[in-house]
Specification:
This protein is α+β, with helices and mostly antiparallel strands. The protein contains three helices and 13 strands. It has a 13-stranded antiparallel β-sheet, sandwiched between helices. The mean pLDDT is 91.
Amino acid sequence: MKTGLIVSLAIIALVLAGLYMWRLRDHRADRAEAARLLALEAVDPPVFTRSLVAALPEPARRYFLFVIKEGTPLHRVARIDMRGSFGLGTRDAPSYMQMSATQVLAAPHGFVWKMSGGSGFMRISGSDSGGWTRFWLAGVAPVARAGGTPDHRLSGFARYVSEAVFWTPAAVLPGPGVRWEAVDETTARVTITHDGQTQAVDVTVDAEGRPTEVVLQRWSDANPDGVFRFQPFGGHLSEFRDFGGFRLPTHVEAGNFFGTQAYFPFFIADVTDIRFAGATGAR
């Protein structure tokens, strides 16, 4: 009986050690991907001038003239700190969990969103990126593992391209792989193509050019059928602040089926800081 107990404890110890090493590998992958993306930033980028957007449709031009001040270095890679709520439930029972997160955003090349939320044995932590979704319960039990498929890659591309519209606008300036067109007097559409993927995002602006909402068709299986398909996704933007010459929203509410009765804002974030990778003093 004593031998059996020792064997059982040894097995438990081995399992826990294996889970610990698995978690460490996830952390290393997060750091490596963040470092890769941060290294993409130009050290001495050009600065913003009105001439760069003079030929754009009026709502797109108005958008850029609001979000980027004249003379601002056009940094395209950002590290974003945020806190807020993440809904784990449904529209009728959202089950919001308080969370904090740090994200490296480098559209169109990728992103890493590293978060933690909840408390005690119900604490959830992990990361999301263009290559994976990995979350752990209490730091020891894997509860979500996905990635490495064309479906996941396309869904992730939609996320970080749409976030670039409001958090790294220099990354969506017109150029190779980036095309702007007018939808109506207050809405412009940017279409971004990169590495065989294409995503269109509609951005609605107010009279000053402030982006107030983004809408897109996102490839997702977050639906009652659990099947990947294009479906409405979007959110509202507010509480703009200046970050080194960029005027960016610090409050974002977003979710699936935006603009329909089924809309559920599962992602509610308040940004506490945005640092551009190549800017002087960036951390």
